[in-house]
Design goal:
With 417 residues, the protein is of the alpha+beta class. It contains five helices and 24 strands. β19 and β20 form a beta hairpin.
């Protein structure tokens, strides 16, 4: 019994004894956790920057340019766009309807006044001339026949005049001879007039032959060849496949610029005003010019007035329908006067903020800086800025209302690329 009791005492549960602790984590597990945390932080940063770039508004930009001036230092008071036009330009056509026999011109050819450009088939015209010549010959033959008869009748009347005085012939016989003579005289006058009419008809027929030859009305350059041999041409627009012209000639000495100026600015333009023209094809070539006339009529649809501008330089590079930008210049400043100041900026870049005119300038980090401006004259679609900007800077066009100083933006052209 004592032995059994001792054994039962040894089976007690010792609640005060602590359980053995878990073994410490391995070192690589700690490094793995740090790597995962780094990847999560990097992903958050990338998402932040992507979201930040997408939030930047997309804008259009334009450069700030210096005010254009002539060699004499005259400032531009108004800019406008127009086209080169020719005062003397003609689409040459034949006077008659006919089939083209040959065309003697090509585009770009220089022609002189009266030079033959084309010929039509003269078959019908030649036939009319031959018929008129035959009619004239017949009329002249009739005149000769009547003249011969008249000479005989006059001689007969003279003989009978002497005999009737001697009472050798009757007066009735003499009067009959006189009547015959007078009748032949009337027939001769009629035949002569008929011959004259036949001669006029021959001249008309010869003119008809000449009308089959197309000549240049003035000296110039051929800019279009409209017909080919074998085609039918007519001076009237008959429709179908009938041509109305042989070619188009332009007198290059008559080229000028035609500009449409808005009604609001036409008061700045005066006759004989100096002008500087720049062709779109040659932006670095400044052509001196002057205002010829202001057309006294307005276009109610476009609210513009047409102005004619004469080019003082003639050059083969200037051709009709070229686009050109003209600057109407003020009088050149005299010695001692200040030169034009400021720069020219697109009007779309200037906005009102807090009661002041401002523009947003793009810096090198795609951020904008707000600049307060002092503006001057309007220059067409541009505006003169006296202070706040300098040539070479880039401004934002049509800046959003929410755009502020220091905001990041995306340039439209850069975003497209």
């Amino acid at each position: 019994m004592n032995a059994s009791a001792e054994l039962l005492k040894e089976l007690r549960i010792e609640r005060d004894r602590k359980t053995p602790s878990a073994p410490p984590p391995r070192r690589f597990s700690a490094l793995f956790g740090l790597a995962v945390a780094g990847v999560v932080v990097l992903a958050v940063l990338i998402a932040f920057w992507i979201t930040r770039d997408d939030a930047a508004p997309e804008v259009r930009t334009a450069p700030v340019a210096a005010i254009a001036s002539s060699a004499g230092g005259a400032a531009s008071v108004l800019d406008a766009s127009g086209y080169v036009v020719a005062r003397r330009m003609a689409t040459v056509s034949a006077k008659v309807t006919g089939r083209v026999q040959e065309v003697l011109i090509e585009e770009g050819m220089q022609v002189e006044e009266g030079q033959v450009l084309a010929r039509l088939e003269p078959i019908d015209a030649d036939a009319q001339r031959a018929l008129a010549a035959s009619q004239l010959a017949a009329m002249r033959s009739q005149v000769g026949s009547v003249q011969a008869q008249l000479q005989e009748a006059e001689a007969q009347a003279r003989r009978l005049s002497g005999l009737v005085g001697q009472q050798l012939v009757s007066r009735a016989q003499y009067e009959q001879a006189v009547a015959q003579r007078d009748s032949l005289r009337a027939q001769l006058a009629t035949a002569q007039r008929n011959a004259q009419v036949a001669g006029d008809q021959l001249q008309i027929a010869e003119q008809g032959v000449d009308n089959t030859i197309v000549r240049a009305p003035f000296a110039g350059v051929v800019i279009a060849k409209a017909a080919q041999p074998g085609e039918i041409v007519s001076p009237l627009a008959t429709g179908g496949f009938t041509r109305t012209g042989i070619g188009t000639i332009v007198d290059m000495e008559s080229l000028e610029v035609e500009v449409e100026v808005g009604e609001s600015y036409i008061g700045r333009v005066q006759p004989q005003m100096p002008v500087e023209a720049v062709l779109n094809a040659y932006p670095d070539w400044r052509i001196p010019a002057e205002v010829i006339a202001i057309i006294p009529a307005a276009d109610r649809g476009k609210a513009t007035v047409k102005v004619r501008v004469a080019l003082k330089e003639k050059d083969p590079r200037i051709v009709p329908d070229m686009g050109v930008r003209v600057s109407f210049l003020e009088a050149a400043p005299v010695a001692g006067e200040a030169k034009p100041q400021g720069v020219r900026v697109p009007a779309a870049a200037i906005v009102q903020r807090d009661g002041a005119q401002v523009a947003f300038v793009l810096d090198g980090e795609d951020r904008v800086r707000r600049r307060a401006l002092e503006t001057g004259l309007a220059m067409g679609t541009d505006r003169q800025v006296l202070s706040g900007l300098s040539a070479g800077q880039t401004v934002v066009l049509d800046p959003p209302e929410t755009l502020k100083d220091g905001d990041r933006v995306q340039v439209a052209d850069a975003a497209a690329r």
